[in-house]
Amino acid sequence: MTAFEESVALENDNKVTIGSGQSEKTEGKSPMETMQKPLPVSPPVARSRGRLWLWLGVGVFLLGFVLYFVQAFQLKHLVTPWYMPILFTLGVLLALISVRRRPTWTRVIAFVLLALLCAAEWYFILSMSRLPEYKGPVEADKKIPEFTTTFADGSSFTEMDLKKGTPTVLVFYRGHW
């Protein structure tokens, strides 16, 4: 062993390497003093980036279904559930955040399924809630336009039923039921 190798070995025996490669001299320190110095803690490792966003998106998406079933079957309140497509859209956006953070196949598939269901819901709500074109009020002594409607018991009623001669009161509501 050369003199240079001996000095390097001696120097290495008197140094303790700490976490990031820094060295500290330990000459004159007892082993207990050296051991009592806390080692630096490494930062926590992120388990999965975006998993929470995906589950939040799925949860918000499913919340729309749950609220609709409560409204329709428990409360028996039959109105257009505008909150459903809004919650679906919010769920899709949260799933998109998850995909942007870490694009895995499962997240992409979940995002595509949620997006397709959301698009179908928007199409259904917007196409089914469309009102017929308004043609203005009926004037006195003017023939009413042709129409067909259904009574609550399921029987149909047309403008021809008005010509039967029985007194009839028509009430027009501007709106969609």
Main features:
single chain; 177 residues; rod-shaped; mainly alpha; two-stranded antiparallel sheet
The 3D shape can be described as rod-shaped
What is the tally of beta strands? 4
**Rg from Cα:** 37 Å
Mean pLDDT, to the nearest integer, reads 78
User: In this structure, how is the largest beta sheet organized?
Assistant: 2 strands, antiparallel
Low-confidence stretches: 14-22
Q: What structural class do you assign from the helix and strand content?
A: mainly alpha
Number of helices: 5
| Order of strands across the main sheet | 1-2
**What helical percentage do the residues reach?**
40-55%
Distance linking N and C termini: 98 Å
In percent terms, what proportion of residues is strand? 5-15%
Question: How do the helices and strands follow one another from N- to C-terminus?
Answer: HEEHHHHEE
